[in-house]
Design goal:
Number of helices: 2
Helix content: 10-25%
Strand order of the largest sheet: 1-3-2
Oligomer: single chain
Radius of gyration: 14 Å
Low-confidence stretches: none
Bound molecules: coenzyme A
Largest sheet: 3 strands, antiparallel
Shape: globular
Mean pLDDT: 92
Length: 98
């Protein structure tokens, strides 16, 4: 899955991206999520432009570590290891569909 997110400058550094990603990742990895979910935490990989230090720091705070540098695309690949994360990701409200 590819996604792009961009928060309005006046709302940055308030923990909103961190919170939104925790909710998304906890949903994607929860054992009671419907197929094709869940995926394992260890399968979560992100690729971020090398110059985007804010995003790299954001994912490091969520427990991702650099695993590869893709020089041709000037991208850093980070994979979830859980390092440095002391509490579980936030869990959002679940709604029943169908
Ligand atoms: C990257 C971005 C989404 C972060 O959103 P945000 O809501 O400000 O992020 P948060 O407040 O949740 O930050 C969580 C952590 O990420 C890291 N971080 C976020 N912005 C940072 C910055 N400018 N410099 C360094 N670290 C940063 C910090 O570790 C931060 O924790 P802290 O505030 O306790 O130090 C936002 O800066 C943005 O929209 N940037 C432009 C678009 C972009 O780069 N999108 C991502 C690529 S798809």
């Amino acid at each position: 899955m590819r996604f792009f997110f961009n928060s309005e400058p006046e709302y940055r550094r308030k923990g909103l991206a961190n919170r939104a990603l925790q909710l998304m990742f906890s949903y994607a990895t929860a054992s009671d999520s419907k197929p094709p979910l869940p995926v394992s935490k260890e399968s979560l990989v992100v690729r971020i432009g090398d110059k985007n230090t804010a995003s790299i720091a954001l994912f490091q705070k969520l427990g991702f570590e650099t695993t590869k540098h893709v020089a041709v695309f000037e991208e850093t690949e980070l994979r979830y290891t859980g390092k440095g994360v002391s509490s579980p990701w936030l869990i959002g409200e679940r709604r029943a569909y169908g």
